[in-house]
């Protein structure tokens, strides 16, 4: 009989430390050497085996169709405004690593922009012999009336979380030479912020600077031009067992401030502001999220917060005057209060208004708040006047955010409006004064390609806010979205909680239990799964067709008269953020089982509604979602025919010792604590495998360069399952790509194609399309 590590006491030579939970025997610990010769030989052998199974003619056709979507030159080029220019990072077939470029507003709105290419990452990689992955740019604020010129570019050598920061001059289109004082920070995890034109604030693990137990930066320094991290003045430090240190400078004119954040754990942090050379803590519980905009300090508590006898519920949004609060005032204004159906997802400041992005039963709602007018003006429950932005169709995800809140050459008030109604507001032909109250609106749905809109906000005479907006770009359709419909259903979990899920299927769906169905979920870290258009899912799953039983015409005895496509389902389970912090906290640590029960309830609901059956139902998830589907594999194998498990957490006994795992103790618990290991072991898939169980077909995939979860948990799970003789267990590890598993479109197409093709083969058989 084959036994698993969970059945054994700690092996000799690996005794538990005093007071710590024992570690079960792990016969695959050798696979934890990420770049070891023997582990990589095992990886190459597994890759060859999986590629031999999956990479057939259908796979090649599928990969080509997905790559066509990813490389499309018709997709929306999203931009960010800095000064007079609109910046974009772009990948396509000719530029797989990408181009960082910019254009003017007149050119962008024309539909055929003339792009000024600042950096060709493919050319840079070829010249320097490094597989650079572009991770963004951070501009130095220029002097008044001067253009933005200098930026710190974040470049990863392998797509992981560790970046090299290099100073770049957008006028000369060159990196500033370190020999002449240009900033060039060694590759490491951390952050860098401009303090002034000659000084950076840096939190880093490079050059021997200390790390936390989570592998992130523990200290921050003030780095002058020409200086080294090792000799730079240390300005901030946190304990080793905290998660990470961050430093940042807010250079908003008139509101210049320097902040330091001590991330104690994933959901707890202390924030301080620098005053007269000393750090002054902002007095708030560690689980209250803080943000600052000009004179305002905003609070979003993760748990109920009692202030001077008033309790503010988790997920609410509160405001106070920054200086007043620092001086001791606790005059908090309530801007949003959640209810059983509505949660706050994010917010964005324009120059004069605050945009709130809400979810109401996982459909978007946007409200505009005006801090200069009390909420009583228009009957709002907010302390500030609140106006609904009419831009959100049902079962869609719509997000509003500022174009450039600092472009404030005009203070938009009623005195600038002749008739008090807001006037005829249009998107300007050129860059109009007062663009600080312009906003972007991005809307998407499962069958609705993304649309980019730009609008302008102004005060109206009735106490509200008026908005005139115009569509700037619409992404093309990559599949016949008119043939499909989106429905929202609610499953009932084991504790009677109603769990929403979205179902995307053909309008002529036959409810006979025979539809290949892909169930996707996440359920962790307060991440919301909202409607989103995916040309890849449309082509790889919805449009794909089963072979007609009994022959090409589907006329075999008892056969349905047609082939059928796939059904795509997204579950909004607890642990996520769809209903705010309470929805998340309902599945933390010892309550983790609720996320898995919710997902299983959705699976059962799909089966009971005869959308699908066990043999036709597969699930897919990545990262924390990999832990989710790993638990479907081991705890609910009777519900699924196939499982696609990506970049996953699976060994919950050792996850805190692998890559950045220590930083997630707040989410899952600490397995070194005996009392916590008792509940963690119930959702550790690596320790829940047993003989004699009919497991679903399983595909486990990861990336060598993933420095967040790391590849070793995926490796060990596949190795253990194969050693137990469990059939149809497949493994693949991309050699680069970081936690996303892909650093360019071709890698992304291959990754998505392998997962989709595996599920289709397992649930529907070979395709004839």
Name its key features.
alpha+beta, 32% strand, eight-stranded mixed beta sheet, 769 residues, 13 helices
Give an overview in words:
The protein is α+β, with helices and mostly antiparallel strands and 769 residues long. It is built from 13 helices and 39 strands. The protein is globular, with a radius of gyration of 27 Å.
List the uncertain runs: 1-15, 410-432, 550-560
In what range is the share of β-strand residues? 25-35%
Helix content: 10-25%
Shape assignment:
globular
Main sheet: which strands, in order across?
32-33-35-34-36-37-38-39
Alpha-carbon Rg, integer: 27 Å
Mean model confidence by pLDDT: 91
The class by helix and strand makeup works out as alpha+beta
Show the helix and strand layout.
Blueprint: H1 37-54, H2 57-70, E1 80-82, E2 85-90, E3 99-103, H3 105-109, E4 116-120, H4 121-128, E5 133-139, E6 150-156, E7 163-169, E8 174-175, E9 184-188, E10 190-196, E11 199-204, E12 219-224, E13 233-237, E14 244-250, E15 257-265, E16 268-275, E17 278-281, E18 288-293, E19 296-301, E20 305-307, E21 310-312, E22 317-321, H5 322-326, E23 333-336, E24 342-349, E25 354-360, E26 363-374, E27 384-389, E28 397-402, E29 438-445, E30 448-459, E31 465-474, E32 484-492, E33 498-506, E34 517-520, H6 535-542, E35 567-571, H7 581-585, H8 593-608, E36 617-622, H9 624-635, E37 642-646, H10 665-668, H11 674-680, E38 697-703, H12 712-723, E39 729-734, H13 745-764
Parallel strand pairs: 34-35, 34-36, 36-37, 37-38, 38-39
Antiparallel strand pairs: 1-2, 2-3, 3-4, 5-6, 6-7, 7-8, 7-9, 10-11, 11-12, 12-13, 14-15, 15-16, 16-17, 18-19, 19-22, 20-21, 22-23, 24-25, 25-26, 26-27, 28-29, 29-30, 30-31, 32-33, 33-35
